[in-house]
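Supplementary Methods S3. Input chains for the assembly prediction are listed below.
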Amino acid sequence: MATITIDKVSRWFGNVVAVNDVSMAIGPGITGLLGPNGAGKSTLIHMMSGFLAPSTGTVTLDGAPIWRNQEVYRQIGLVPERESMYDYLTGWEFVLANAELHGLPHPGAAARKALALVEMEYAQERRTGTYSKGMKQRVKMASALVHDPAVLLLDEPFNGMDPRQRIQLMDLLRRFGSDGRTVLFSSHILEEVEQLARHIEVVVAGRHAASGDFRKIRRLMTDRPHRYLVRSSDDRRLAAALIADGSTSGIELDRQEQALRVQAVNFQGFTTLLPKVAQRAGIRLYTVAPADESLESVFSYLVSA
Amino acid sequence: MNPTVARLTLRGLLGRRRGLLLLVVPALLLVVSAIAAGSSGDKHDLVVNILGKLALGTLLPIFGLVVGTGAIATEIDDGSIVYLLAKPLPRWKIITTKLTVAIGITWAFSALPVLLSGLLLYGTKEGLALAYTVAALVSGAAYSALFLLLGVVTRHAVVAGLAYALVWESLIGNFASGAKTLSVQQWGLAVAETVAAEGSITSAVSLGVAVPLLLVVAVAATALASVRLGGLTLASDE
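Predicted structure tokens for the full assembly:
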């Protein structure tokens, strides 16, 4: 059982604050670190893996500081986001070298086991430079698992993977999670995170925005006010009909766009209401587009929630 | 020494095209020496020019720069150093292993060709061939330590190294003789001076100054590189 504790951690680069007073504990099981690009996920993972010092606060593994403490790597396996990995080595040589660097008593056996775990034996004699992105990711996994670590940290592991590779990796991570290991992975895609992690930590603009069960986070995200851009055969009449219903909280006539900007209180209610209202009033709908579905807007809502 | 780190460093330095490129420097020296050996004229001056100025003054620092920085800066640049650092491995061990490999390659590709060139040009007369070889061994080790450190502390190791090797040692050293006191090349020559027949090689620095400086630079550079590697920060993509 291993727990990484981030306690009142901030990290700035010059004038830019990348992580702002974040506290969280990552325990056994799978945790998803969710946030838009540039939110500070990588900065957090770099601090958790000992490759960045916090400007203030502490990052510890079971009480031991991680920064400048190479002994923690007996317990931590790291899958970095970058792909470079000694391209001139074969998959086998690469994983074996990692086992040797850990000083394992039987590096050959450990490397074989790790490669079998990620199902990469078939390509282990090929140079890693010739691997596809998914293959590289799996060999990186094998190198991180070769010493049977209690903690596994993965920085954007699903980036650039095809759906099949994604499912394979998810299965693998699920197995580790159910083994009682502490698995933390970062992602900017909500669907990816909720497929895998029950526990989610959300960071936005360097701040810790939400923490908890994925259902709670999902509810926060879908219950937020939604904005839509609507064009119809009679915008004014449609606006009047919509505002009469409780699921709409605001409507604006946008003259430039020649459209309605509608703010809905709840997503479910509005999407069933709109076609009904339009049909009843004999109005034809030309455009119904979500106006703020970008992840950033969802996240910024979460921060203020 | 960690055998795995050594193996990875060696393959990184000598693997594929890079190994062939490194061969260009000794090949160039041997070709020049072979041509010069056939010419008439003062052979002593030829040796001093070819081994002293071309080999020790230009080729050795450039070679040391390529190997010293290549032993670590490439891995830091592309991020693969993570796989060495995310291990319970003392940082000084990584540095000393890489330094040993860098020195070994520098010696094999520089000091050995210097010896061959010297013998080709001048035989064993005045002990010049041996003296310049000793200078190449000593300076080669110091350059390796210095440039390995540069590879750890700056992302612009090659530029900084070139600035030192070419601008400081060659250019400024020619105008301001004080700069020569802090020149690896002159330290090497000071050692060579004691090996060769009296008066055949001269250095701007005395042996009593050169040896302590060589030791201080090599040890301090290695120690500092180890400390800096222990606190290496990965550039965030964000």
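The two ends of chain A are 33 Å apart (CA to CA). Chain A has a mean pLDDT of 89.
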